[in-house]
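Summary for the funding panel

The consortium committed to producing paired sequence-structure records for every protein in the target list. Below we show the first two records in order, beginning with the earlier of the two.
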Amino acid sequence: MTTRRDFLKISGSAGALLATVPWFSAFSDSNNTIGEKARIGVIGPGSRGQFLMSFMVKNPKVEIVAICDDYQPSIDEALKLTPKAKVYTDYRKLLEDKDVDGVVVTVPLNMHHEIVIASFEAGKHVFCEKALGITPAECLNMYDTHKRTGKVFFVGQQRLFCDRYIEAMEMVHAGTFGEIEGIRTYWFRNGDWRRPVPSPELERKINWRLYKEYSRGLMTELACHQLQIGTWALKSIPNKIMGHGAITYWKDGREVYDNISTIYVFDNGVKMTFESVISNKFYGLEEQILGNKGTVELEKGKYFYETAQPAPGFLQLVNDVENKLFDAIPFAGTSWAPETANENKGDYITGKRPKTDGTSVLLEAFAEAVITEKQPGNIAEEGYYASVLCLLGHQAIEDGVMLDFPEEYKLDYLNHKRAVTTEV
């Protein structure tokens, strides 16, 4: 597990990162919060909730004081991680608990809005798993309520706190890879995305991701992570969205697509794509940033230059002789021939193979923010736009049209400005 301390050893200091990652301001007071605790309630400690809890229980600045679920097997498993936590079956009762400073919300997507709004109104700080809401209007209401109440608001976009992503973005913004000409993202799996159901009446409760009443499928569960990479890399929000989706393989009664493709167009014409197929896993998942001088593959944690480094003097001499003798590149190629994608092994962004995705550091940052009651810069906005972009992609697929980014869902952030309404 990578911790904030490990990360700072790689990247220098939190202060040096604030230009590229303003949300790292969460750690500005970390030396002064030693001995203090963020008292957290977990609403929805299912598989994802328990995954997040597994990090929080290792943090000396976190105490999980309460858990809430109406599904007993989840409660039983969660109590193995935090046996002293109070147990609730109604989230409203948990929100009345004065021992709870902040909540981690990991319930099905259609319940996010109701619970997050209630949490803010109850005076609690909020960490909400992505995507934020099931509609852009819900996302905007959650963001506005955060601003109005002044409570801390984090969204589960862990790549914002991942060392290789941060270092790669520093390289991108410094022009290391030239002008960014395209961003390709994809997430391929081979599986039905189903979970075992002990009894038929629990089908929609357990497999909620497969039904439109509760979920937006691959767009909200997978694309939400990857689309945020484009806004971070380009420091801009796309303004046109199009896409297509279908059920091509898993024809088992599900309502959400198992095969989708979307395109997001920025003002300068650069495009970002997201694609997901869950009946073939060969290519796995990746976010590729394509510059005219080089490429970054963030999941692999590697970067590649377009032009190979010059060959050593002796090899260059051999190449020159080959050219003079044959006046063409030999069948087998020469050592100075441009590298192909198969031959270019690239370099690791952090100097080593990736081992983490930033989740532990993200949760440490939330704990710090709960203790200090200070909202880190930009993280709510990045989480908001990641959610809205995936939901607009879903809408473009459903409506079969190319959408312009609706004015009413723009914030004062990056290249977007909030629409101003004038009362008559």
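The next record, for a separate protein in the list, is shown here:
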Amino acid sequence: MNAAYRKNEEINREERIAPNPIKKTVHVMVAASEWGMDGLRYRRHRLAEFLKNQPETAEVIWLCPTPHITEDAYSSLPNGIRQFPITDIMPHKLFRFGRYMDLFYQSKLRSLLFYLKKEQLEHRIQLWFTFPGFPLLADLFPWDQVIYDCSDLWSSPIDGKKTVLSSIRQTLIANAEKRIIENADVVFCTSTYLRDKVVEMRGNAEHVYVFENGVEYLSFAEETETAVGIRPVDFTGKIVGFIGGIKPKLDFELVSEVARLRPDWLLLFVGPDGTGQSSEFQELLSNKNVLWIGSVPSAEVPKYMNTIDIGIMPYKDSPYNEAVFPLKLFEFLAAGKPVVGSNLPSTKNCIAEGIYTHLEGNQAVEFVEACDQFEKENEPKRIVERQNIARERDWHVIFTRMMETSHQYGEERDTSARG
């Protein structure tokens, strides 16, 4: 752990073994983008806010890359989190490789490190990687703990396509991630697939754990309103919906075929377009019974969940999706909705009659049949069963267990040091 500072840690061993119990923690979270830039709330956003609300937290710093030139090193977000952006080499996305190469970001971290050195006198300093950027940071400071929360197969193309540029990008990210994994005291993964990959890179399974994604349960379970203006007048068919980021990992061809097979359904998509207006997505939207709303405020999402009859997660068969544990699964269930997903092996342990159906491949007929089956499985008791499953996956429960695991590692380390 933190090889560059190992000698210094030995010198200050007594202080680090028996820290002042009054000390609070400054959490530095390495995130993939500026807060709010994606128009979505990912796991890392919820984790940052959870940490911010803990009584033992002094501060949460959101360290992130940005394509924009920023004047202020720090900015305070409305939720009280402080954002520290690191400007890319150039604005174009081709230059994002600098996030993974020490030469292009090390000097930009100086003011943050200077600030942390002052904070270290009164607080514990903990580093969280939530994406494999700025790997050198783990070696630039004597962190009290380094944690990697791994939620994606970052080095794999999200659209499943391989090109020369994607291969170069894959190598850069894989190398950066390996360094982070080797430096991390604890690694959390959102799927067993990711855990296996991490163990392979780490060389052992010690302190590597699986914590799948969760849900803000009450926000969905207690919402009673539906979205206005979605259901057409005199419409009596099913509304089948996907709510989340519209990205190349989705199988738009599959959904287009479903739309053609069932013209009596309304296929609703809610979320920002992350495809760059791809031709596949545009072709999907050309179907008269497909409606795309675009991005909506997070507080409005439960109303759209209430509007649909069946939640769908139509993913492509790709290496990237093998690792995915979708955020929306337990949100659908918390709203009492049944779910049909495809090519998401990490969700197979959630398969249950009347709750969740998982399919492999891209057969539209099978997808339609799976949705039709839920018409027979929508009595009140099924709704209660779905919500009971989701209740156990509340984010607060998941993050509390993660923190307990992190604290347990700290206690084991200190006991070992004393011995």
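Regarding this second record: Residues 217-391 form a domain with the Rossmann fold fold (CATH 3.40.50.2000). The chain has 15 helices and 14 strands.
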